[in-house]
Amino acid sequence: MLWFHPIFSALVLLLALYVLALGWVRFRVNHLGGRGVFPWKRHVLLGKVVYAAWTLSFLGGAAMVRIHWPAFFLKGAHTMGGFVMLALMGIGLVTGLIMDRQKAKRRALPLLHALVNVLLLATAGYQAWTGWNIVQKVLLH
Known about the structure:
The protein is mostly helical.
């Protein structure tokens, strides 16, 4: 059961990289003078799936800690990274919903959305690294 959280999180990270690739098309067209067709609906849908899955992963990780240790959260980098991800997901979701529901030509909001989500992916990569350390110390011993 303890393996579910790291495996699920890794799969969601892969899906998030795909969502980033979809968003890159829009960035390239709007800001770099490139050409391409932005798959808006797919990007929005899969972005929401990633946010929901990472939120569930956060809750699942907290539940696993609670079941196997006498606390909801272990103090450390992995826990703090999870909280940072929650905050970034909130900002990414709000900016994404505004752009999806109130379509208009914009420059700043899409850039903010992209920046927040790139930071989110970087944090997820950090989570994978700190999570691997936990897997080695706890699950592989």
